[in-house]
Queue: 2 jobs
Job 1
Amino acid sequence: MDTGSLTIRAAGKSDLPQLLDLYRELQPDDPVLTLGSASPHMDQILAHPGMTLLIATVDQLAVATITLIVIPNLTRGGAPYGLMENVVTAKAHRKRGYAGALIQHGFEIAWKADCYKVMLLSGSTDPETLDFYRNCGFVQNKTGFQIRRPSGEPVRASSCAHAIVIGR
């Protein structure tokens, strides 16, 4: 594993331009966020308890990032759980061990926070990507579900809700 002069740390506000570049590689079809429009979102992320944007840099260049969220819990004896999202490595820096080192660092943070598990969902069906996650220690043994808000439609009560009472 060639990690060169790899540095892993929590991202700060000054990392926003490089993070936006990395996220562009992750989701190239997403609407473009300018620094001005992304700045309030970054402020919220940095202020959110239990949420950490981890960034891997080589010679001060951002090469990979993950988001780790430690979520409080009332099961498992109150042990929190972790969620990793937005895992991305710049194309020019892949296959050098950077993302694996970043994920391992995320695990260390989660275990220090007493998380009983760390979850990650991937939309990838690429066997190489799935093998990468397995090699990091993830086990593919659960069924994941998601729902996305329909574009342009108002928010409605779900058919799985039995009753919604608002006020009296």
Job 2
Amino acid sequence: MNAPAGIRIEVHPELSTRVADATLAVCWDDTCQKRTLKLRKTAPEEPAAPGNPVMTTESAAPAEGPATRSPQTPELSIWPGFVDIRDLPGKPVHITLEFKDQRGVTVLDRQINTTPQPTYPNGRACSPGGHQAQLTVTEKGSLIPR
């Protein structure tokens, strides 16, 4: 079993509802790769699969009415996506993330440097899988590496 190289993106739902088109560019050395993030709804039973870039637009938890929600139940605050980046290195990369609304107006244009880490899908005693980086986009549009 292997893990693909790539970047996982988690977008706050308040921001994701305003996004019609999303692109991610990642650069290192003399290499740049640009990917379009396809926005589509993901059913609760259908997880976001690596290699199938998505940002979900609905909650992974079933909707509850106000009478059934407990005050202790945490709100789901992020939606994950994954973009496959072949040959992503384990050294610093420069990432540009851009979101546009239905009219083509840019609602987010952020850049960040981060270092992808090796994955160990079969445990640390086995060879590593692809390098991966994780980013979170907050409601206010901040881009945070994790």
